[in-house]
Amino acid sequence: MPQSPSSNPGEAEVAHAAPGARLPADAGSILLPIARAAIAAEFGIRLDVDDSVDWLAAQGASFVTLTTSGRLSGCIGSVEACRPLLEDVAGNAYAAAFLDRRFAPLTVADLDETTIEVSVLSPTTPLAFSGEADARAGLRPGVDGVVLEWEGRRATLLPQVWARVRDPGEFLSHLKLKAGLPPTFWSDTVRLSRYTVTEFHEERRHER
After folding, report:
1. How many CB atoms lie within 10 A of CB 4?
2. Which residue segment(s) compose the domain that 99 sits in?
């Protein structure tokens, strides 16, 4: 299965929960079927998967992004590792398909039109900065996913979002909006952390 550090747009609803073990090069051939099987099971469809490899038992954080007929149809994930990667990918796949409040739940008719992307996150690291300009300067376009926290608000954007923004300032503006804040908002108590992803995606499925 194809893999890349980041390539496709990806806004996500944050659940909770960075891989505890290094992923093998063929991890996508295992993770993507696990995600698809978790969705198909809701319709009574059983798909065989390989869930026996040791690294699936290590705690991990992932995002699952769904594209149906060429349009984003769900994206749910975990920022912090709090359960085995197997459970995290399966749980986030189910949530992306049926619990993302921004989209209608997937139907069985959608299944063959839906392409799945799994992003496995590195551990987050705090970003040190002295103000918003310094924070913008410290971001790595195309590489960093970012988590913003401020007074109980929390939001993240995956590195894939860099593909459709012009610069770090616009990236942060989108992140603030996602946290329910004005795009011009700033406070000295804002906290930012960053992570990278290893991305696996199915071949694009046929579109209507």
Report:
1. 12
2. 3-122
* CATH number of the domain residue 14 falls in: 3.30.700.20
Give how many domains the chain has, as a whole number. Answer: 2
The DSSP code for 163 is G
0.70 surpassed by pTM: yes
Domain final position from 102, 122, 142:
122
Name the token pair of 80.
């912090």
Do 50 and 107 lie in a common domain?
yes
For residue 150, the domain's CATH number is: 3.30.1490.150
pLDDT in tens, 176-207: 999 999 999 999 999 999 999 999 999 876 55
Question: Are the beta carbons of 98 and 105 closer than 8 angstroms?
Answer: yes
Q: What is the pLDDT of residues 113-139, one digit of tens each?
A: 999 999 999 999 999 999 999 999 999
Nearest to 89 by CA among 135, 42, 34, 134: 34
Strands across the sheet containing 114-121:
3-4, 197-201, 114-121, 62-68, 71-77, 13-14
Pairwise CA distance, residues 64 & 106, whole Å = 14
Helix (H) or strand (E) holding 190: none
Q: Are residues 38 and 101 in the same domain?
A: yes
Based on the number of CB atoms within 10 Å of its own CB, is 46 exposed (0-12), middle (13-18) or buried (19 or more)? exposed
